[in-house]
Each structure stands twice: as structure tokens, then as C-alpha cells.
Amino acid sequence: MANLALETESTLTNRFQTTVPSPVRKALHLGKKDKIKYSIQADGSVLLSKLTEDEADPVLGDFLAFLENDMKKNPAKLQPLGEELRSSVSNLIAGVEFDLDAPLSDEDE
Fold first, then answer.
1. 47: which of 21, 72, 89, 101 is 20 to 30 A away, CA to CA?
2. Does residue 38 fall inside a structural domain?
3. Is residue 22 situated within a structural domain?
4. Structural domain total, the chain
5. Nearest alpha-carbon partner for 49 in 31, 28, 29, 33
6. Backbone angles phi, psi at 97, to 5 degrees
């Protein structure tokens, strides 16, 4: 392995989640809500790096720009969410509570 400076490990939970070890967070200057990029090499090794805004998914960005332009050009085609679809979605998520900003609980780990 080329220029190995430090080796560390972490464990996968039952939900395939892990905590990024402190030395890795420090080396990559990671903070809460930062995104991590995984680059899988041909030999099976994986490079881990901090995802910067410049590296955001270009396909998603182009798609969102397409939607924005289409809505501006064709505002008459925009339709409100129908009652039937709204009701269907409401039934699917009834009783489900979530907070996307809340940290995972110990039982989720």
C-alpha cells in the first residue's frame, strides 16, 4: 500500500451503517452533514474523499435545470396535486414519524 500513514477501522451495523472514525474525519476535514465520495478502484480498493459542491451530481443538476426551464416555459401545464394522489400518499405514511435532521438512535445503529 502506497504511503500508508495511518490505518483505522469501523464496524457495520445491521443496517449497513457505520461511524466514520475520528482520524478519517479529521484527515478529510469532515463536519456534520458533509457528503463523502466513494471511488471504487478496479482492484477492489475504495478511496474515500470529501465531496465538494463542485463535484455534485451533474446529471441531477441538469435534470433539475431542465424541469425549472420547462415549468417556466409551460406554466399552463402545471397542475395541482390531485386529491386522490394526496390521499393515497397520506395513507402510505400514516403513523410514520420522522425527522431528517435528527441523529440516529442507538437502536438504529
1. 101
2. no
3. no
4. 1
5. 28
6. -110, 135
